[in-house]
């Protein structure tokens, strides 16, 4: 048990996990805010919660560089923190949303599926130009038969894809090393 606790006592992992949990909770608060404003909380507008991710990844890099790095932050440390924060936050947020749509208000998920089916049928002519009728009906049935657990998978995959560029930019901004090609070695 002590070896497990020692493993999680690394500053890089601790900071990433704490900021990941905070990010996940704030992203869920964003979801609840959309729900309270009567905006479809599972719609495309949720992509704006990437701002929460970017701000907290930046904060984590700054905090780690200031507190543990002695003013320095290597690229690999910042990349690791960015992806761990994103993974932890996406998993936590996905599960919280899943619990919300299964326990509190299932109509959020049914509205999401209905909107997806409406979008499919509205563009049916365009889609039939590159899909056969059988393929279209298969896609339609897959969307119709989705289970609420799909929200967790979607949250994780979408956040990991959407966060690639912001994490790279943030890590390049906060990276500061005590060695390098451009350092004056006189």
**Count of β-strands:** 0
Q: How many whole angstroms does the radius of gyration measure?
A: 21 Å
**Shape assignment:** elongated
- Biggest β-sheet strands, sense, barrel: none
Number of helices: 9
- Helix share of residues? over 70%
Strand content: under 5%
Q: Which segments are poorly predicted (pLDDT under 50) over 5 or more consecutive residues? A: none
| Structural class by helix and strand composition | mainly alpha
H-E string: HHHHHHHHH
Q: What is the average of the pLDDT values?
A: 87
Q: How many domains would you count in the coordinates? A: 2
Between the first and last Cα atoms, what is the distance in angstroms?
A: 49 Å
What does it look like?
The chain is elongated. It starts with a helix and ends in a 12-residue tail after the last helix. It has helices spanning 2-7, 11-36, 50-67, 75-104, 107-122, 124-128, 133-144, 150-162, 164-174. α2 (11-36) runs antiparallel to α3. Helices cover 74% and strands 0% of the residues. The chain contains 9 helices and no strands. The protein has 186 residues and is mainly α. The chain has 2 domains: 13-105 and 149-175, no CATH class; 107-147.
Write the layout of secondary structure elements.
Layout (H helix, E strand, L loop, with lengths): L1 H6 L3 H26 L13 H18 L7 H30 L2 H16 L1 H5 L4 H12 L5 H13 L1 H11 L12
Task: State the main characteristics.
186 residues; mainly alpha
Condensed summary:
The protein is built from 9 helices and no strands.
């Amino acid at each position: 048990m002590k070896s497990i606790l020692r493993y999680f006592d690394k500053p890089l992992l601790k900071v990433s996990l704490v900021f990941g949990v905070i990010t996940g909770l704030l992203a869920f608060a964003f979801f609840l805010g959309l729900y309270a404003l009567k905006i479809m909380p599972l719609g495309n507008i949720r992509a704006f919660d990437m701002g929460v991710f970017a701000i907290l990844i930046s904060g984590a890099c700054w905090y780690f560089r200031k507190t543990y790095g002695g003013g320095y932050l290597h690229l690999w440390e910042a990349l690791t923190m960015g992806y761990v924060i994103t993974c932890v936050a996406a998993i936590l947020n996905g599960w919280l949303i899943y619990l919300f749509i299964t326990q509190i208000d299932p109509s959020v998920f049914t509205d999401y599926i209905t909107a997806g089916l409406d979008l499919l049928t509205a563009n049916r002519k365009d889609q039939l130009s590159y899909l056969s009728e059988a393929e279209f009906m298969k896609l339609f049935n897959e969307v119709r038969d989705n289970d609420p657990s799909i929200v967790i998978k979607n949250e994780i995959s979408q956040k990991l894809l959407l966060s690639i560029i912001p994490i790279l930019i943030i890590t390049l901004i906060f990276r500061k090393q005590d060695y390098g090609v451009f350092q004056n070695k006189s």
